[in-house]
Write a structure and sequence with these properties.
The complex is a heterodimer of chains A (about 450) and B (about 525). Chain A is of the alpha/beta class. Chain A is built from 15 helices and 14 strands. In chain A, the strands form 4 sheets. Chain A has a 7-stranded mixed beta sheet, sandwiched between helices. A 3-stranded antiparallel beta sheet of chain A has the order 11-14-13, with no helix packed on it. Chain A has a two-stranded parallel sheet with strand order 1-12. By secondary structure, chain B is an alpha/beta fold. The chains are: A alpha/beta (about 450), B alpha/beta (about 525).
Chain lengths: ~450, ~525
């Protein structure tokens, strides 16, 4: 019997334990474990560290380990590429950390009415950004949302090939590749290395009667805004394929919604909307489409809809078309479902409610102004080529260091001495861009921050 | 001894809260955005004007316009209309392991809010150390040789297992032949759905009516040279432990298949029995369940997938390694299945789970398991004393950490079924309970899991509430059939409309289009 009374285990009080055993007519818990045959029992002792029983000891220990990290509050950060440093309003953290939302799970819409409403509102607001009437409960991340979108497109069209723009995030591509592998063939469509835009000729050459969909991102992983979006959608549609667009929601206060240029399904990540970077743990995907049965029937995720209750005028909520899901139909479902990222969805909803249309417009324009300013300053540094891609960019842009004679990895290492996280090294995954890096600038960056980067680069490259 | 208390006068907050759009006043703001300095704007020029007309948003998104106080109040109202595990007697959600979620762990996880996943490895040694150590903990707890912490939830880990099984058979040139996965009906739906998504055909075993678990003979008939793997939970969602599990594993191995152990129900087994001793090739944990990081209304969570050495080459990239005193991310794994999630997983969940294990240690984990099965057996005795309750299968045998009960008798006697009782329990300040995954093999099911978090008084209170509702069903069935009465929302009036394309409304814009013409 344990001598420690654990704060999280009320019945570890020895007297209580004895009383419960007595009432069951048992001498020890071992008699319950007699269910597990002896040869299947673990005989050893788990080699785990000595416990830190008090909260104070635990705090000191974990804080001590994590103090080895350098964070983006201490360092000036220009990394993006799938997780981005945006400002998180305090109200987002307040709501996100409320125990009611934080510790709830799969309760029904009656005692968890607020959870359902918050998720309905998140879907509604993301739908407004995208111009779509249907938005999924959040998936694990953008990669999963994109992979599911492709699998949906394949089921809708009865075809098995998806054309994917080559400017996709390499890591996201790996996730998608694994998710669609048994059913779908992925083929890259080339991009124009001058503009960063999809190569329309290559696209036209590759699209066929097997093509279920074309998938491109707007802005792309390399930051370029895809200005040919309507043409791409039209070519897809003329060939009986769907048009899938991965979109950064933080751009949609100023950029056209995917629905306006012919997207059939949009997807992307909620992390820019009030969710901390969390070392990449802040990701949460969304899928959106028109409100047509042929689309709704193919969502693998839960979909929560508004529906009346028995009280006149009261809003209620419930699962829409639940039979689609694996919770209802096991292997006969549309893909699979499980715990995903609902709390991040609620948080993204809080963010959009705080920002409103004006906030999202200012966010988008302000980011583009800072990027334009940074590019103008970076241009003045000898050896740096920027912008590398001529299409307008949002939030991220490619910087070419070829003429400096220094490798991105070495430049970034030296930038660390200036307490700066430099851009993401593209030289391995995008060798055609030479010795380049992907820089990210958001609303958190001030004029002084941009000058600090430029000054540090001047010194590093001197 | 703490008081056993039925909360007769409980009433959940019911705010009649408008949809956020109905709180909108043009011009109001919830937060101001940091604007660029004038010099930046001047030098940048008209950035939007440089966009081609087709890419420039013509109309602002019709988001609500609400002041900060009113946004906060709105979401606080909604939070008060939600029953989290830290607020209530959450024995209700069997198969979910609804533990107390320590506040300290939230504070510690917040320390990594501002880390970017692409930072130089040298600048996140602390986080990588926690990943490395947490993987080591899981290896001790399960007996597996390597883990990936990348999957975003339990079912995602199970999908990762299916992907690795595919890669394994592909590497041996047998994928075309080995295209069947066997599972059991009381294993989680994802044990059928994820291998199906990964391209396998599914064979489902049903339980022997007496033992509650499938017969070994049924498995022997199902396996063949087509068998790729078995995906099985043990104890199953009924709480019954399959004593022949090692024979199941051997049968599948003898046929050339792999064995994946779904450990969603691991809580009662910590330090007691492991996947390794039963012979499994792989297992997973729902980190957010078993190791007490919050469920977040359904995530973010983490699924940890463990494998034996012969499958480690297929794990997703990156893995976290240690060399010369430095932790690093290893992407150089030629046989990897690739990735299942961006970057390297849900880092805050790992920090919380690491902290939880550090506070308990080996003895504490065993105490978790022992108290959870003691709680369950004590609670089962109380619940089975209620007229109308039955427990299916395996009479006289002990359950481990949870039980699937049935209200079949109550329904026969009163017309009040499990959904009615589920709705009524909310009126006593208790979360609606979990019935069962589909299909309902046990009639009028309900599944309860009183893990180590709950006190003796909690267990007795919960059972007393069930007894009271069973009594109500006899005295005043309409009271139960029209419940809930005191929750934040009342029953759906026309639930069938949620399946009707003309009526369903998934967003406010769709609702307005369909209902406010």
């Amino acid at each position: 019997m344990s001598k420690v009374v654990y704060p999280y285990i009320p019945n570890s009080v020895p007297e209580v334990k004895i009383q419960m055993l007595k009432e069951l007519g048992l001498k020890s818990v071992e008699e319950i474990y007699a269910e597990i045959p002896e040869h299947l029992r673990f005989k050893g002792t788990m080699n785990l560290p000595e416990p830190l029983l008090s909260e104070y000891e635990l705090r000191r220990h974990v804080e001590g380990i994590l103090a080895q990290n350098k964070t983006c509050t201490e360092y000036l950060n220009f990394l993006g590429g799938g997780t981005w440093q945006h400002y998180v309003p305090e109200v987002c953290d307040t709501i996100n950390s409320r125990d009611e939302f934080l510790t709830a799970y799969v309760g029904d819409a009656y005692a968890d009415h607020g959870k359902f409403q918050a998720m309905f509102e998140y879907a509604s607001m993301v739908g407004d950004l995208l111009g779509f009437d249907v938005v999924s409960t959040p998936t694990f991340d953008w990669g999963m949302a994109a992979g599911y979108s492709m699998r949906m497109a394949a089921r809708i069209t009865g075809r098995n090939q998806v054309l994917v723009t080559k400017t996709i995030s390499p890591d996201r591509y790996l996730c998608i590749q694994n998710l669609v592998k048994p059913n779908l063939e992925l083929q890259f469509v080339d991009y124009d290395q001058q503009t960063g835009l999809l190569n329309l000729e290559d696209f036209k050459a590759k699209i066929s009667a097997n093509t279920a969909a074309v998938y491109f991102e707007n802005p792309s992983y390399l930051g370029s805004i895809e200005t040919q979006a309507e043409d791409i959608a039209a070519i897809a549609h003329n060939n009986g394929a769907l048009c899938l667009v991965g979109a950064d929601p933080s751009s949609l206060g100023v950029l056209s919604p995917p629905s306006s240029y012919g997207a059939d399904i949009a997807c992307g990540d909620l992390q820019p909307l009030g969710i901390h970077m969390n070392a990449g743990g802040g990701l949460a995907g969304f899928i959106a489409s028109r409100d047509e049965e042929k689309y709704v029937a193919e969502y693998p995720t839960q979909l929560w809809g508004l529906t009346p209750t028995v009280a006149e005028g009261e809003y209620g909520f419930g699962d829409v078309y639940f039979e689609r899901t694996s919770y209802a139909s096991r292997e006969h479902a549309k893909d699979f479902l499980g715990t995903q990222t609902a709390l991040w969805g609620i948080t993204a909803g809080v963010y959009l409610a705080l920002m409103g249309p004006q906030g999202m417009a200012e966010l988008g324009e302000g980011i583009m102004q800072r990027v334009a300013y940074a590019i103008e300053l970076l241009k003045t540094i000898p050896g740096i080529k920027v912008p590398v891609l001529s299409s307008p960019s949002f939030k991220e842009f490619v910087v070419d260091f070829d003429a400096t004679g220094k490798k991105v990895a070495d430049i970034n290492k030296q930038l660390l001495e200036h307490k700066i996280f430099g851009g993401k090294d593209l030289s391995v995954k995008f060798p055609e861009l030479g010795n380049s890096a992907l820089f990210c600038i958001t609303e958190v960056h001030t004029q002084a921050d941009i000058h600090r980067l430029v000054d540090a680069l001047r010194q590093v490259l001197a | 001894m703490a008081q056993v208390k039925i909360r007769e006068n409980y009433h959940q907050a019911r705010w009649d809260e408008p949809i956020i759009y109905e709180l909108s006043t043009p011009g109001e703001r919830g937060v101001l955005v940091p604007l660029p300095e004038q010099e930046v704007k001047d030098k940048a020029g008209d950035v939007l004007g440089k966009l081609p007309e087709n890419m420039r948003r013509r109309e602002a998104p019709p988001l609500p316009e609400v002041s900060q106080k009113h946004v906060l109040a709105h979401y606080l109202h909604l939070s008060q209309e939600t029953l989290g595990a830290n607020l209530n007697n959450d024995i209700s959600q069997g198969t979910c392991t609804m533990k107390y979620n320590p506040r300290i762990n939230e504070a510690l996880a917040a320390l990594i809010h501002h880390i970017h996943p692409s930072q130089a490895e040298d600048t996140m040694q602390g986080l990588l150390q926690i990943y490395y150590e947490f993987e080591r903990f899981l290896k001790e707890i399960s007996g597996m040789d390597r883990f990936t912490l990348q999957p975003g939830g339990g079912s995602h880990a199970v999908y990762t297992a299916a992907s690795i099984i595919r890669a394994y058979h592909e590497s041996r040139g047998e994928l075309e032949q080995r295209n069947e996965v066997i599972t059991t009906i009381f294993s989680h739906p994802c044990d059928a759905a994820t291998p199906a998504t990964a391209g396998f055909k599914i064979i489902t075993l049903y339980p022997n009516e007496e033992t509650g678990v499938p017969d070994l003979e049924a498995l022997q008939e199902a396996v063949s040279e087509r068998t790729a793997a078995i995906f099985i939970t043990n104890p199953e969602d009924t709480g019954i432990y399959n004593r022949q599990i090692d024979k199941f594993v051997k049968t599948v191995h003898d046929a050339g298949g792999l064995c994946f152990y779904d450990q969603a129900n691991a809580n009662g087994m910590l330090g007691i029995a492991r996947a390794r001793e039963a012979g499994f090739d792989m297992c997973h944990f729902n980190v957010h369940k078993t190791f007490s990081t919050p469920h977040g209304c359904s995530g973010p969570g983490t699924g940890a997938l463990g494998v034996r050495d012969h499958l480690a080459q297929f794990l997703p990239v990156p893995t976290v390694e240690l060399a010369d005193g430095k932790y690093y991310l290893d992407y150089d794994r030629p046989d990897t299945i690739g990735k299942v999630r961006g970057f390297f997983g849900v880092a805050p969940v790992i920090v919380k789970a690491y902290s939880w294990i550090m506070m308990l240690g080996a003895d504490g984990l065993k105490e978790v398991a022992e108290i959870s099965v003691l709680n369950n057996n004590y609670f089962q005795k109380k619940v089975e004393e209620i007229p109308g309750v039955t427990t299916w299968y395996a009479k006289g045998r002990r359950r481990l950490e949870q039980v699937r009960y049935s209200w079949e008798k109550l329904e026969e006697e009163t017309g009040v079924g499990t959904v009615d009782v589920m709705c009524r329990i909310g009126d006593y300040g208790i979360q609606h309970y979990w019935t069962s995954h589909h299909p309902w093999v046990v009639p009028e099911p309900f599944t309860l899991e009183p893990c180590e978090t709950f006190s003796k008084a909690d267990l007795e209170t919960y059972a007393a509430v069930l007894a009271k509702i069973a009594e109500e069903a006899r005295q005043d069935p309409e009271l139960v059939k029209t419940a809930p009465h005191k929750c934040a929302s009342r029953r759906r009036a026309r639930p069938e409309e949620l399946d009707d394309p003309e009526k369903w409304a998934l967003t406010w814009r769709a609702y307005k289009r369909k209902y406010k013409k």
